Amino acid sequence: MVSSPHEAMHRIFQEYPELFTGVSRILGLDFAPPASVTVLPTDLTEARPVERRVDTLLRFDTEDGDSFLLAVEAQGKKDPAKPASWAYYLSYLYAKYQLPPLLLVVCQDRATAEWASRPVTIGPGQWPALTLRPLVAGPHNMPVITDPAQARKDLAMATLSAITHAADPSVDGILKALSTALRDTPETIAHPIVELTAQGLGTRPAAQQWRKLVAVDLSFFTSPMSEELRDEGRAEVRAEVLPMVAEAILMFLEQRGIDIPDDARERITSCDDPETMHHWLTRSATAPSAEAIFDQA
């Protein structure tokens, strides 16, 4: 049951809203007198269900006996509406779990990271009621791990290094170090690293390099994601290398003065089998005709 003092302490401001001006001055603030005041509904319950989900929520119980909540948000671009949502998350989590919440925002570009790291004050300028201060991890502060030995010591940090620097030129060295470190890592540990790295790189150019590294350096992995990356990597290698092999075959034949019919030229340039192309390249040095390079003997 709500007590009378409780009611009086807040309802007086409904009846005499200008009272707040005097109270604020006593508290050392300087709010201008109100030009108008509107009494709003006090029920803050959502009129309809609104789905609010934090990307990842973890409870930490430390060795020192402390406990706190960690909300992790992945942020791909600036979003003016996000700070309000983040403040809601933290307030809700504190009310629900009665544990101090902490927000970590992970970004992949410096501009978004700098935007996300700015404190956001909620309330009037004279006395902000809340201040949102996220921790931000991004390419501006995450380490660039290009030493395989360092990557091997902390595979998770090396993976985050690759993800946060996905758009940076430095990512090539990070990925090479990570793939090298994974060569002697048990598959049960390596598989999640392979998959998280692939997901984190998305469709950026670095994703192509990761596929090639998985196809060559990590060819012994057998997880579905590894097989998929390996197939894509082999396809990309074929797409880059086979046209060069076809050009070499044609050049050898032309330099030897051998006529190349259109159908033979088309067959050479359209072949997508590396072993066949290797055979034709070898034959092009001694074959008496363009058609003769196709012989199996």
Automatic annotation (TrEMBL):
It comes from the Bacteria. This is Rpn family recombination-promoting nuclease/putative transposase.
